[in-house]
Structures are given as structure tokens and as C-alpha cells.
């Protein structure tokens, strides 16, 4: 059977396809449209659909819209409660209207689709399915926290043999995700976009406002929580506003971050008591907070924690498709990895380079050639295989550099045009990770946890060590990614360091590179020394030779 899942209602529109229980494709609309997050998270953008992503998913499988058994839309307008506190009364009716008419919008966007094939999947159920049904095990507790769905902001439940039991849900206006969005905005960042910047800034501060936040943000003992009104404007007056961030701003970020971690620990404790499960799966935007995830695994009651790599709203497209597959009696297999997007053959990549009239070479040993360039302290844009689903660069669309040069942190942030307090991350062979990193889980293929860097390594790989002595690592499995693994081995042979810097291949405010044109444009506009496009190597000095 064939199920297409779509996310469109809030932000990060995306599409995913499940065929005969297998995840075939998943992609975010931003990678096609080149608009960061696909669209703005406002009610009057709810009509915008992931048309290009959906069309590509179908084309990937050689399907037409009329071949689908059902389409999941990850929002159920019937669950919206008019006038409910916490909703935007001026615009909520418009959002709900668009959602109700979505089947007809989709029939227009995907000619041949019968509107009756569209099924509404509640937003948090879709999030839960993206975790509990995509994880490598069938039974788990599941925790979803984000900004909001139709009428709630959280779900706690259990998957047993693929069937979901909901044990708790927190009604709006109480929301951990919206709380984090609000502090993001009041610190001068963009809400529903830059929350990860708050997490990074928090490492520079002390949680001196934690006491007052504990009185305003607390659990209720029944699987839920409360977020009382917080006077962020008052904090802004106390801390000051401007173009730069002070120690006070970092302290506020640290306080919010710590309180979030504490509340998640309490919610997880309640869920563990109710389910007795050893394993926890998570989704929702809050699950992208890798610092909180690490503390939850280290101090919480669960032995294992699996987080959906596309934990934000984009992941509800996959969750919706998986939920329908399960509902139709076709249990889905675990997702095979995050590389679910577009890819090109070597011949297609050569045609792109020929059309661009770019000089290139094809080294006999690509891994060794790239390792030599990295060892010489050159910045490499790395484009391989199918693109990643979710916000993390995982060795498919990455910028790489030497981790032993402390200046490379500032250098890469300059290349990307972003704030200097932002950390850059390491990739490491899975079998070598324990030598260098502690505390976080290994393997960690999706960059969803932070690890402490062993003291003896901090001076050896300073570019990837955050101010608090941690790093958000990606472990590389030799069997799953032999080319990347060989490059890491070749780099170690030259430098003695089994680690390479890995950050996303994009510049600030733009989506991650997806297709060859994106890669060439980014290479042409950013001071990157080398572009690796499949088996081909393009040198900046040759392209821009005078």
C-alpha cells in the first residue's frame, strides 16, 4: 500500500512517502523553494502546501497521485476549540478554514488525487508516530513537546506493538515550545526558527533567573505542566536590548534552558512510572534541544532514548504516513536513516558541471584527496548521496574543516555569516568516539545529543569544543557510510585526529544545499576552498583563476 504524508499547517512544510511499510522518501519544501523553513509560521500561510516535495516523493517511487491509497494531513481541524485560550483569535478561524479545505487544495496541487483520499491525522499523533513507529523498536514510551497543535502542546503515551495509547496531553495555552519561542523572540532572534541559538547562547551564561522561572513553569503531577504568563518585556527592560548580547542575556537563556530540562525530566519520570518501559522515543520541536536530550538520558529513568532526526513539524509528514500505514494494517519498518531526500548519479553530476563550465577532476582516491585538503587546513564543501531529512547536516550536505585549528570556529562562522557564539560540530568514527567523548550515547548518528569532550582532547580539537566543554557529535558507521569513514581514517593518518569539523552546507538565512545548482551557487558565493560533488573535486583556485 502507498501512503503520502504532508505537513503544511504551521511551518516547515514537508512530504514523505511510505510504500509497503518502507519509508521511501521524505523531503522538506524549503530544499526545493529555497525559502528557509518553507514559509513563515503565520495563520495566513496555512494554504501553502509542500507541492514540490510531494511531487518529488511520488516521482521517486514512480507513482501518480491516483496510485495512492491515502494521504495524511498532519492536523485535524475538528479538534480546534474556537475561542480557546492561547489561540490567536484574530486569525485562528482562517487557519482552520484552510485546513478544512486542504483536501481540495491538494487535489489541485496533485492532479489526479481524489480529495476523499485525504485523512486528517492529529498533529501530536503524527509527531508521536514519527518517533514511536520510525524508531528501531516496536514498543516504547513516547513523549511529544512542541509549540502547539490543534488544542494541545504535548502528548505522553506508549506504543505497544505499533499501537499508540495516549496517557496525557497538555491543553493550551500552556506550552513549553511556545515559552521557548517567546524567549527566542525577546532575545532578538526569530521565533519558530532560531531556538537553537538560545540553546547555544545558554552555555555562556549562569541560570541566575532559575528560581523565579520555577515558580512560573512547573509540572502538575498528572503528566502535564503549567506555564504561567511570563513578563518577557520586563526582562527586556531589566537586561537591555540592542544589537549585541550581554552576559545578562546569556544568563536568561541559561535559566530558561535549565528549567526546560528540569520539567522534561519530571515529565519523563511520570511517563516511566505509568508505562514501565525501558525505552523512550521523542519528537516535536523541543526534542531538537540536544542539551535537554542528553540530560534526559543521563539523569532520567529510561535506559534508551531515540529522537526522530526530523523532530520538528517537518517530521509530522513522515509520522502521518506511518500512522496511516499502521491504521490500514500494514506495520511500517523503522526508518533506514535520515538520507531520504534527493540524490544524483555520477553521470548526472558530471552533466551539471559540464553545463556550468566548471573545471573539475575525478581523483582515483577521493577520500584520500579530501583528507589531504582538510589536513592542509582548507574548507571543504561535501555533497554526497541523498540529502538529509531534518535540520542536521549528517555528511550528505556538509561543510568540513580541520578541528585542530581553534581559529576555524570563527572562520566557519564567518563563511556562513552567523553569530560567533554558535558552535560547530565534530564527526567521528563510531568505534573511536569513546576515546574522545563521554556522557552522551554512542552511536549518535543524528547529532541529537551533546557529549563531554575528554580533557586530554580539548586542546587537540579546539574548533569543535563548545565553551562548556561539550560537542554535539555525529558518529559515522563504516558499514553505513564507507566513503565518509575512509575519509576520516585518511585524515587521522595525516593529522593524528580521528575527528573532522562538520556543519551544514549553507549560509545564514538560507536552507541547506540540496541539489547541484545549490552547491555550485554556495561554492561561488562563500569562501570555500574545495567543492566535492559526488566523485568530482572542484578547486576554488581553478574556478576563479584570473
Automatic annotation (TrEMBL):
Coiled coil: none annotated. Residues 2-72, 116-322 form the Carbamoyltransferase domain. Pfam families: Carbam_trans_C, Carbam_trans_N. Belongs to the NodU/CmcH family. Residues 371-540 form the Carbamoyltransferase C-terminal domain. PANTHER family: NODULATION PROTEIN U. This is Carbamoyltransferase. It comes from the Bacteria. InterPro entries: ATPase_NBD (IPR043129), Carbam_trans_C (IPR031730), Carbam_trans_C_sf (IPR038152), Carbtransf_dom (IPR003696), DHBP_synth_RibB-like_a/b_dom (IPR017945), NodU/CmcH_Carbamoyltrnsfr (IPR051338).
Amino acid at each position: 500500500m502507498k501512503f503520502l504524508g504532508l505537513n503544511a499547517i504551521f511551518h516547515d512544510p514537508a512530504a514523505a512517502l511510505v510504500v509497503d511499510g518502507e519509508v521511501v522518501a521524505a523531503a522538506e519544501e524549503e530544499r526545493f523553494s529555497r525559502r528557509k523553513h518553507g514559509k513563515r509560521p503565520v495563520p495566513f500561510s496555512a494554504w501553502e502546501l509542500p507541492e514540490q516535495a510531494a511531487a518529488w516523493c511520488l516521482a521517486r517511487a514512480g507513482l501518480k497521485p491516483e496510485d495512492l491509497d491515502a494521504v495524511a494531513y498532519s492536523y485535524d481541524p475538528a479538534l480546534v476549540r474556537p475561542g480557546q485560550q492561547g489561540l490567536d483569535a484574530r486569525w485562528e478561524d482562517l487557519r482552520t478554514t484552510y485546513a478544512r479545505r486542504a483536501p481540495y487544495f491538494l487535489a489541485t496541487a496533485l492532479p489526479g488525487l481524489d480529495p476523499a483520499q485525504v485523512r486528517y491525522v492529529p498533529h501530536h499523533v503524527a509527531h508521536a508516530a514519527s518517533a514511536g513507529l520510525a524508531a528501531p523498536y516496536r514498543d516504547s514510551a513516547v513523549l511529544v513537546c512542541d509549540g502547539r497543535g490543534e488544542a494541545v502542546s504535548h502528548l505522553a503515551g506508549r506504543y505497544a506493538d505499533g499501537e499508540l495509547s495516549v496517557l496525557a496531553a497538555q491543553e493550551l495555552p500552556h506550552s513549553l515550545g511556545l515559552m521557548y519561542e517567546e524567549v527566542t523572540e525577546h532575545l532578538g532572534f526569530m521565533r519558530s526558527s532560531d531556538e537553537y541559538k538560545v540553546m547555544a547562547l545558554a552555555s555562556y551564561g549562569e541560570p541566575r533567573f532559575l528560581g523565579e522561572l520555577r515558580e512560573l513553569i512547573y509540572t502538575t503531577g498528572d503528566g502535564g505542566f503549567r506555564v504561567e504568563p511570563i513578563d518577557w518585556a520586563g526582562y527586556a527592560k531589566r537586561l537591555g536590548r540592542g544589537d549585541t548580547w550581554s552576559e545578562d542575556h546569556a544568563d536568561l537563556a541559561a535559566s530558561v534552558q535549565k528549567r526546560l530540562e528540569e520539567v522534561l525530566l519530571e515529565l519523563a519520570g511520570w511517563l516511566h512510572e505509568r508505562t514501565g518501559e525501558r525505552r523512550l522515543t521523542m519528537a516535536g520541536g523541543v526534542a531538537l534541544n540536544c542539551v535537554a536530550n542528553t540530560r534526559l538520558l543521563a539523569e532520567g529513568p529510561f535506559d534508551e532514548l531515540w529522537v526522530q532526526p526530523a523532530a520538528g513539524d517537518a517530521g509530522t509528514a513522515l509520522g502521518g504516513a506511518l500512522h496511516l500505514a499502521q491504521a490500514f494494517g500494514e506495520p511500517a519498518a523503522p526508518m533506514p536513516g535520515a538520507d531520504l531526500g534527493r540524490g544524483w548519479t555520477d553521470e548526472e553530476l558530471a552533466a551539471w558541471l559540464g553545463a556550468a563550465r566548471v573545471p573539475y577532476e575525478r581523483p582515483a582516491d577521493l577520500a584520500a584527496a579530501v583528507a589531504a585538503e582538510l589536513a592542509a587546513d582548507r574548507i571543504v564543501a561535501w555533497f554526497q548521496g541523498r540529502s538529509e531529512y531534518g535540520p542536521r547536516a549528517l555528511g550528505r550536505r556538509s561543510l568540513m574543516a580541520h578541528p585542530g585549528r581553534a581559529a576555524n570556529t570563527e572562520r566557519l562562522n564567518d563563511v556562513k555569516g552567523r553569530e560567533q557564539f554558535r558552535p560547530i560540530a565534530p564527526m567521528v568514527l563510531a568505534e573511536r568516539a569513546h576515546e574522545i567523548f563521554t556522557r552522551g550515547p554512542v552511536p549518535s548518528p543524528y547529532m541529537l545529543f551533546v557529549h563531554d569532550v575528554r580533557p586530554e582532547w580539548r586542546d587537540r580539537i579546539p574548533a569543535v569544543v563548545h565553551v562548556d566543554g561539550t560537542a554535539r557529535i555525529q558518529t559515522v558507521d563504516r558499514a553505513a557510510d564507507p566513503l565518509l569513514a575512509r575519509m576520516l581514517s585518511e585524515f587521522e593518518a595525516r593529522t593524528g585526529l580521528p575527528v573532522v569539523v562538520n556543519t551544514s552546507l549553507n549560509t545564514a538565512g538560507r536552507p541547506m544545499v540540496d541539489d547541484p545548482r545549490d552547491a555550485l551557487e554556495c561554492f561561488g558565493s562563500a569562501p570555500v576552498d574545495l567543492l566535492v560533488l559526488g566523485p568530482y573535486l572542484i578547486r576554488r583556485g581553478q574556478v576563479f583563476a584570473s
